[in-house]
């Protein structure tokens, strides 16, 4: 088992890490376990571990994926906590993909203004990104993740064994965030993937655990320095300005990682076209994502919708759009207020049809 420290908590990565759960909720008379249907077996394992340790467990099943990141679902969780008379010494555990851990984190952050939270990510994306770092939230009609709180967990348990049941397309989605970490901070990630893309996609192989550990290390370093996204943390949003706009336009039928993949190619084009990024490094984005089988194009006619949707990006300041771009490999920077012409030119590089 590997433990990576983030401020005051640890991300435990390995097989059978659930053993650490009772310690993380010590002192809680009740523990709510929030999960969605596809991970019931993994939630049951967490529940059994808690019950063996003497905790009273309140299982809360929520709608799967983005359907769960909704105010009505959060409200139903708070109703359940209220009915069980949850107090400040109790705890919330989120078991599932990034959507469930984002929701569970938001529920925990708001209940009594904050009760203990433990995240147990069961998707690759959850392990390397969503469950780590304290961003919690839900979607609203106006856009993705627009309501939420910075609320770090007391601990994160990444049981690599759960990846054995993750659908292949969801594993692939997680690799988009892994590739992102490679470009913004740890190019060894890119070399590992490029030398054997199939190995990177094998949940039982030796490459994926290393990719998980390297990506968590990147995220841990960044959020330990800048939890509330005053500056440095924005680099974790590389590829997300366009990515979130695609997700919203698709009404969340596209996977987050797939949308981020297109967003990464767009961001690389922005970097190159603004004269900041070497063409070879820009081209490497498309190459590595394509070799994995991630999407790198989106319909040409979508541009006006996407351009409008990007206005609600959290990095925007007033009418000024701001993008994370690269000045070189592992050298992220900010591009503020690019012209509409430059944005369209960059979009042409991902536009299909
Ligand atoms: N808070 C953050 O910092 C942060 C970072 C990145 C992404 N996110 C959010 O995370 C979400 C995407 O996360 P995701 O890619 O995990 O998608 P997801 O949560 O929608 O999960 C994808 C699918 O896989 C299923 N699943 C998860 N683990 C499984 C397992 N072990 N076995 C079988 N099925 C399993 C889920 O139930 C779901 O059907 C988005 O909402 C995104 O905005 C948040
Ligand atoms: O942790 C962060 O910070 C990130 O930006 C990580 C992203 O991968 C993640 O998708 C995050 O939820 C996006 O945050 P948002 O603030 O743009 O909603
Ligand atoms: Zn993301």
Automatic annotation (TrEMBL):
Q: Where is the 3-dehydroquinate synthase C-terminal domain?
A: 174-316
Which of this chain's residues are annotated to bind Zn(2+)? 177, 240, 256
Binding-site list for NAD(+)? 64-69, 98-102, 122-123, 135, 144, 162-165
- Tell me yes or no: is Disulfide bond among this UniProt entry's keywords: no
Q: Which residues form the 3-dehydroquinate synthase N-terminal domain?
A: 60-171
Record-linked Gene3D superfamilies: 3.40.50.1970, Dehydroquinate synthase-like - alpha domain
Q: Which UniProt keywords apply?
A: Amino-acid biosynthesis, Aromatic amino acid biosynthesis, Cobalt, Cytoplasm, Lyase, Metal-binding, NAD, Nucleotide-binding, Zinc
Cofactor binding: number and manner: Binds 1 divalent metal cation per subunit. Can use either Co(2+) or Zn(2+).
Q: What's the catalysed reaction?
A: 7-phospho-2-dehydro-3-deoxy-D-arabino-heptonate = 3-dehydroquinate + phosphate
Supply the EC number(s): 4.2.3.4
Per its UniProt record, what InterPro entries does this chain match? Dehydroquinate_synthase (IPR050071), DHQ_synth_AroB (IPR016037), DHQ_synth_fam (IPR030963), DHQS/DOIS_N (IPR030960), DHQS_C (IPR056179)
Physiological role: Catalyzes the conversion of 3-deoxy-D-arabino-heptulosonate 7-phosphate (DAHP) to dehydroquinate (DHQ).
Q: What is this protein called?
A: 3-dehydroquinate synthase
Species annotation: Dactylosporangium salmoneum
Q: Which gene encodes it?
A: aroB
